[in-house]
Amino acid sequence: MSQANVVHPPLEGAKLVIGTIAVSLAVFMNVLDTSIANVSIPSISGDLGVASDQGTWVITSFAVANAISVPLTGWLTQRFGQVRLFMSSIVLFVIASWLCGLAPTLPFLLAARVFQGAVAGPMIPLSQTLLLASYPRAKAPMALSMWSMTTLIAPVAGPILGGWISDNIAWPWIFYVNIPVGIAAAIATFAIFRDRDSAIRKAPIDTVGLALLVIWVGSLQIMLDKGKDLDWFNSTTIIVLTLIAVIALAFFIVWELTAEHPVVDLSLFKLRNFTGGTIALSIGYGLYFGNLVLLPLWLQTDIGYTATDAGLVMAPVGVFAILLSPVTGKFLPRTDPRKIATAAFLVFALCFWMRSRYTTGVDTYSLMMPTLIQGIGMAGFFIPLVSITLSGLPGHRIPAASGLSNFVRIMCGGIGTSIFSTAWEHRSIVHHTQLVEQANAYNPVFSNSISQMGAAGFDQSQAYGLFNSMATQQAAQLGVNDLFYLSAGIFVALIGLIWITKPERSGGGDSAAAASAAH
Fold first, then answer.
1. How far is the C-alpha of 443 from the C-alpha of 456, rounded, in Å?
2. In 3D, which of 324, 373, 381, 322 has the Cα closest to residue 351?
3. Angle 278-283-284 (CA atoms, 0-180°, nearest 5)?
4. Does the keyword Translocase apply (predicted)?
C-alpha cells in the first residue's frame, strides 16, 4: 500500500529502449497467436486424426478464453500489480505454448489453447499501460506508435509464418516459436520493470459478474464461430447460444453497473472520449480484420493462389505502417488526433474502393497496390484513436480502460470475420442466381458462348458445366466487391464518431494520464 501515491519517473536511455522492445515482443507473440494457427488447421487436423471442422476449435478455444480474460485486466491489476501480472502472463504464455506443441490429442491441444488464451488476456492492455508510464509526457504518442506497429503487423505475419512452418517444418513449431521470444521478453521485462509495480488493493472477487461474463462471452464466441457451419438461425444450437448470450449480457450490464466492486468497470462508457474512441476503433478494426480474412480466402478459393502466395499479397501492408508509425507518434502531440484518425479512415476507404473494382483477371500489381497504401492508413489508425480513448483518464483507470477497450476491439474483430464470411457467401448466391437467369436460349450472348464451346469440342452438358463454373467464379468476385465497397462506405461514416469526441490537449491526448500510469 505504500506505493499508492508513488509516481515512477519515465525511463531513460538504454532502459527505455530495452523496456519498449520487451513489451513489444510480448505483444507481437500474443497477437501472432490469434492468426498463426488459421492456415495450419489442415495439418493439425490430419496429424491428430480429426475432421477440419473440429480442428477450427483450436482457433475458437483461444479466442473465447482470451476474450473473457481481457476485460478482467483492471481488476487483476488491482489484486496483483501491473508488472507482476504482465510478467506472469508472459511466463504462463510460454508454458502454454510449450504444452500446445506437445499435444498428442485434440482435447489436450484445446485445453492448452484455452490456458494460453486465458493467460494472454492481460498482456495487451498492460503493454499499453507500461509503455505509457515509461515515456515522458510529451512522448506518450511515440510509445503508442511502438505499440501499434506490433499490433498491426502481427495479424498479417501470422498466416505467412504459420503457412511456411506447416509446409516446411511441422505444425507444433507454430507454438514453439513463442518460447525463445517469450523468455527474452520475460527476462527483459523483469530487469527493467521489477521496481515499477503499481499499488495492490485486495478488492473482493465479483463472482456473479465473472460468471455472467464467462457465460455471455463464451456463448457469443461459439455462436460466431459455428454460425456459418450450422446455417446460423436455422440451427437450434445457434438460437439457444444467442438467447443465452443476450440474456446473460443484459444481467451482466445491470449487475456490473450496480456492484460495489465490479469485475469490469462499465462506468467508463459514461465518458465521451472513451465511448467514441472505443466504438470507432472497434468497428474500424472489425472491418480491417474481416477483410484481412476475406481477401486471402477469395484469392485461394477463386483466383487460384496458394496460402503462402495469398499471405505474401498481404505483406506490403507493413511497409508504410512501420515507416510512418513513429512519424505519427512524433506529430501527434502538436496535432488534433481526430484529424490524423480522419485521414487514416479516408485512406482505408480509398483502399477498399480500389479493391471493389477487382475483376477475376486481377493482376498481382492491382492486388498489392491497395495493400501498400493501406499501410499509410494503419500508421494513423491505432495511435490517435487509443490516444483519444484514454484522454483525460487518471493513471489508476488506464489498465481497466485499456482492457475494456481492447476487449470490445477483439470482439468486433471476431464479429467482423463471421459477418464477412457469411455475407460473402450470401452475396455470391444472389449474384449467381442473377447470372444464371440470363442463361437461356433467348439470350444471344449466352447462345453464342455455348456455340463457341461446341466448336471447341465440348458437348452441351460440358458447355453448360463450364458456363456454370464461370458464373460461380464471377458471382464470388461480385460478392467480394460488394463487401469491399460497403467497407469503404462504413469507414467514411465512422469519421462522424471520431468528431463527437473532445480529446484533452495536454501533450498528446492521453499523455497527462501517462505520467501517472504507474502510480
1. 20
2. 373
3. 100
4. no
